[in-house]
Amino acid sequence: MENWTPIELDKLSSLIREGSSKMSDIQKQIWELISIEPEKWTEEEFGREGGGFWVVAIAGKKVIWYNDIEEGFNVSSYIDYGQLDAYGAEQDELQWAINKIK
User: Fold this and answer.
1) Among the listed residues 89, 71, 62, 70, the one whose alpha carbon sits nearest the alpha carbon of residue 14
2) Residue 3 pLDDT exceeds 80
3) What is the pLDDT of residue 2?
4) What is the C-alpha separation between 102 and 46, in angstroms, rounded?
5) % of the chain residues with pLDDT over 90
């Protein structure tokens, strides 16, 4: 992670727009129900250096978040709002992460 820098919100927004443009109708419906304004959540294992990871959707006790180290969207559970329970290293596009939620 020598040259790694956290993703900026405008770049993340671009990835979200790209992923949503590839969604099926049902994926778009799910996205509309669960998406939130991106917000940084903490993660104890790898999230400290970048100030956490951007969460982009909440569905019950699961979230979709962007891992800017691995450059992909992940699905994780949470107990306490604002803190991811587990690190994930998936390199999914957003529409693929939606499938893991539904």
Assistant:
1) 71
2) no
3) 61
4) 27
5) 84
Q: State the Cα–Cα distance between residues 80 and 51, nearest whole angstrom.
A: 17
Residues contacting 41, CB < 8 A, separation 6+: 47, 52, 53, 54, 55, 63, 65, 78, 82, 83, 84
Altogether, the residues listed in the chain come to a count of 102
Looking at the DSSP bridge assignments, the partners of residue 59 are 62
Question: Tell me, what's the pLDDT at 28?
Answer: 97
Instruction: Pull the structure tokens for residue 98.
Output: 């939606």
Phi and psi at 24, nearest 5°, equal -75, 170
Q: Which amino acid is at 90?
A: E
pLDDT tens digits for range 49-64: 889 999 999 999 999 9
Residue 19, Cβ density class (10 Å: 0-12 exposed, 13-18 middle, ≥19 buried): buried
φ/ψ bin of 82: left (φ > 0), alpha (ψ from -120 to 50), beta (otherwise): left
